[in-house]
Design brief:
The protein is mainly alpha-helical. The protein is 83% helix and 0% strand.
C-alpha cells in the first residue's frame, strides 16, 4: 500500500507544481488554493508512505515523479522545449526511479 500512497503523493506534486505556475506568484486565488490543498495532500500521502518505506527511497521517488510530471506538463501545456538533452535527462530520472523501486 505504501507504493500506492507514494504514487498518489507524486501525482499530487505534479498538480501543485503546475497550479503554482498558474497562480502567478500566488496572485490568482483558484490556482493558489489548488496549490496549497494539493501540497497538503501530497505531503500527507508521502508521510503515510514513509511509515514503511525508507526515507531515501520514498523521497527520491516522490521528487522524481513530480519532476518528470512537471516536465511533461511544461512540454504539453506551457510550450517548454523538448530538446534531446532535456529528454535524455528525463529518461535518466525515470531510470533512477525504476531502479530505486526494483532495489526495494
Amino acid at each position: 500500500m505504501a507504493w500506492t500512497w507514494l504514487l498518489l503523493a507524486g501525482l499530487l506534486e505534479i498538480v501543485w507544481a503546475s497550479a503554482m505556475k498558474y497562480s502567478h506568484g500566488f496572485t490568482r486565488l483558484t490556482p493558489s488554493v489548488v496549490t496549497i490543498v494539493a501540497m497538503f495532500g501530497s505531503f500527507a500521502l508521502l508521510a503515510a508512505a514513509m511509515r514503511s518505506l525508507p526515507l531515501g527511497t520514498a523521497y527520491m521517488v516522490w521528487t522524481g515523479i513530480g519532476a518528470l510530471g512537471a516536465f511533461v506538463v511544461g512540454i504539453l501545456f506551457l510550450g517548454d522545449a523538448a530538446t534531446p538533452q532535456r529528454l535524455a535527462a528525463a529518461a535518466l530520472i525515470l531510470a533512477g526511479i525504476v531502479l530505486m523501486k526494483l532495489s526495494s
